[in-house]
Every structure is written in structure tokens, then in C-alpha cells.
Automatic annotation (TrEMBL):
Residues 21-35, 44-53 have a biased composition (Basic and acidic residues). Residues 21-53 are annotated as: Disordered. This is Sulfhydryl oxidase. It comes from Temnothorax curvispinosus. Its cofactor is FAD. InterPro entries: ALR/ERV, ERV/ALR_sulphydryl_oxid_sf, ERV/ALR_sulphydryl_oxidase. The keyword Oxidoreductase applies. Keywords: Disulfide bond, FAD, Flavoprotein, Mitochondrion, Oxidoreductase. One of its GO terms (cellular component) is mitochondrial intermembrane space. SUPFAM superfamilies: FAD-dependent thiol oxidase. Its main location: mitochondrion. One of its GO terms (molecular function) is flavin adenine dinucleotide binding. Its EC number is 1.8.3.2.
Length: 159
């Protein structure tokens, strides 16, 4: 068993907690940590713990889709190039390593479409759907992406 600290941002909370315990047990035997404060999902009260893979993913998608939603309709060459660089750089530093590697692969065969807000938002929707498919989650209807991330639903439920 490796005693390397498990990467919380690379796995769901249950797996991380299990690995953390294994590492802890291997280092300290069965001795209990005296100052351990349980977090909210352990039945405790904290809501300010480090993000696990799913929390990080959900918040990050929110940021990425919102950024795409507010990208210019007619970007200049500099903006197109900066947005392209952003996604390539982002994919090197995203803290969940399996997610980052997956995104790097996706970028190779589907580079960012930076020609307009519509193009970028649709491209990102497809990228996210590839991850959804891999994880067995339902695909999102990309026609609705601006309602979801910019305008709110047509029925007024976000107004
Ligand atoms: C770049 C990236 C790569 C990732 N790769 C992996 C991976 O390889 N393995 C892994 O286990 N996890 C990965 N994740 C995390 C994973 O995608 C989810 O974020 C995580 O499982 C939590 O899922 P969720 O059900 O909260 O919804 P999320 O998938 O986080 O979605 C958040 C919200 O986005 C909206 N949405 C869903 N699909 C789309 C779409 N196609 N277009 C627009 N809006 C949409 C929905 O309203 C949804 O509620 C990755 C995250 C990111 C940001």
C-alpha cells in the first residue's frame, strides 16, 4: 500500500475517504486521530472542506459553460487565440488527473471552436457530453445550452 496522500480532487468522496483511511492506518496503526473534525458528508457540520472530484467537476463545468456563454459573438483574432490557449493550458493543470488526461485527448481530435459565442458554447456542450457518456450520465440537449447557462429557461422559472 502506497503511503502517498490520496488526491481528493481525483476521486469521489467515498473512495477518497477509504484511501485516506488506508494510508492513515498504514502510517499510524489503529491509533485514532485526536483532532479529526468530521465534514458534512460524514454526518458532521462543516461545509468548507476541500473539493472532491464531483464537486470540483460540477463547479468547474459551471465556470466553463458560463465563460463560453459570455464569449463575444464576433471575437477578434486575439480573443480566439487566447481562448484556444486557455483550454489547452487548463487541460494541463486541472487537478483531477484522469479528467485532465481525458480532456487533453479530446482536445487533440476536437480543438476549441472559438469563432463565436455560439460555436464555443456548442463545442463545450459536446465535450461535456463526451464525459457524460463515459460516466453513463444522460446527454444534455445542446440546443438548450444558452437557456441553461446564460438566459434562463423560457418558462421564466429562473426569473
Ligand atoms: C473538464 C472535465 C473533465 C472531467 N472528466 C471526468 C472524468 O474523466 N471522469 C470522472 O469521473 N469525472 C470527470 N469530470 C467530472 C464530471 O464531469 C462531473 O462534473 C461530476 O461527475 C459531477 O457530475 P454532476 O452530476 O454534478 O453534473 P456535471 O456533469 O458536473 O454537470 C453540471 C451541470 O451541467 C449541466 N450539463 C450537463 N451536461 C451538459 C452539457 N453537455 N452541456 C452543458 N451543460 C451541461 C447540467 O445542468 C448539470 O447539472 C470532469 C469534469 C471536468 C470539468
Amino acid at each position: 500500500m502506497s503511503s502517498e496522500k490520496p488526491c481528493r480532487a481525483c476521486m469521489d468522496f467515498r473512495t477518497w475517504a477509504k484511501r485516506q483511511k488506508e494510508v492513515y492506518d498504514s502510517e499510524k496503526g489503529a491509533q485514532k486521530k485526536q483532532d479529526q473534525t468530521p465534514n458534512a458528508r460524514n454526518g458532521g457540520t462543516r461545509d468548507d472542506c476541500p473539493l472532491d472530484k464531483d464537486e470540483l467537476g460540477s463547479k468547474t463545468w459551471g465556470f466553463l459553460h458560463t465563460m463560453a456563454a459570455y464569449y463575444p459573438d464576433q471575437p477578434n483574432e486575439r480573443q480566439k487565440s487566447d481562448m484556444n490557449s486557455f483550454f489547452h493550458t487548463f487541460s494541463k493543470f486541472y487537478p483531477c488527473n484522469v479528467c485532465a488526461e481525458d480532456l487533453q485527448e479530446q482536445l487533440k481530435h476536437s480543438p476549441p471552436e472559438t469563432g463565436s459565442q455560439e460555436k464555443l458554447s456548442q463545442w463545450l456542450c459536446r465535450i461535456h457530453n463526451e464525459v457524460n457518456k463515459k460516466l453513463g450520465k444522460p446527454e444534455f440537449d445542446c440546443k438548450l445550452v444558452n437557456q441553461r447557462w446564460r438566459d434562463g429557461w423560457l418558462d421564466g422559472s429562473c426569473d
